[in-house]
Specification:
- With 173 residues, the chain is mainly alpha-helical.
- The chain has one domain.
- It has six helices and no strands.
- It is elongated, with a radius of gyration of 22 Å.
- Bound molecules: protoporphyrin IX containing FE.
Length: 173
């Protein structure tokens, strides 16, 4: 039963987190060049409120419930490692947005269209990517990595690192 509540909490929190992250570029783009006074202050207030009071707490809850789910469901699988890589990138985007919320409202700043489109597209790719991985849950075999990577020392060979050619021996006690 605990797992069900954790999953419900996880899904509600990540929905708010992801929706907020996708909305941020559009909210930031409302800071047009040359905007001053009350209209600028209003936009800054709303954007900061959404990021600090809604999106960031939701991110903490999504990560907290997700971490609890790892132990509750013993999710030690290949797809989960890929998911965490994507979630790490999403967290990086979150930090980027947080910096932008502070910087963009400074005097003489604005959030250009190209930045809005780039950050929104990166967000969509990451969120859709995570959902595909989580719902598909591919096994390592389904991802069909090349055979030579799966051999012991395969990654070192691929990256061109030196590997001793002597046979592995067990240390004698
Ligand atoms: C650090 C952040 C996160 C951690 C540690 C985490 C961890 C987990 C774990 C352990 C599960 C249970 C997996 C299972 O069914 O065996 C889960 C479920 C799920 N997660 Fe996350 N998660 C995180 C962030 C996210 C994000 C950002 C998204 C979406 C964009 C997401 C989407 C989902 C969904 C949809 C499920 C339900 C999957 C199902 O029941 O089939 N998670 N998460």
């Amino acid at each position: 039963m605990m797992v069900v509540w954790l999953k419900i909490g996880h899904i509600i929190a990540l929905s708010i987190w992801c929706a907020g992250l996708l909305a941020m570029p559009f909210m930031l783009s409302r800071r047009e060049a040359g905007l001053v006074g009350e209209p600028l202050y209003e936009r800054q207030k709303v954007t900061r409120f959404v990021f600090i009071s809604l999106v960031s707490p939701a991110a903490f809850i999504a990560i907290g419930t997700g971490t609890a789910l790892i132990f509750a469901m013993e999710t030690f699988t290949a797809w989960f490692a890929i998911k965490l890589l994507f979630v790490g990138l999403l967290a990086k985007l979150h930090i980027r947005m947080g910096t932008a919320v502070v910087e963009v409202f400074k005097e003489g700043e604005h959030f250009p269209l190209w930045k809005m489109l780039t950050t929104a597209s990166v967000g969509v790719v990451l969120v859709v990517g995570i959902l595909v991985i989580v719902l598909w849950k591919p096994s390592l075999a389904a991802l069909s990595p090349p055979d030579h990577i799966m051999q012991p020392g395969g990654l070192a060979d691929l990256l061109g690192f030196y590997r001793s050619s002597s046979p592995t021996s067990m240390p004698t006690p």
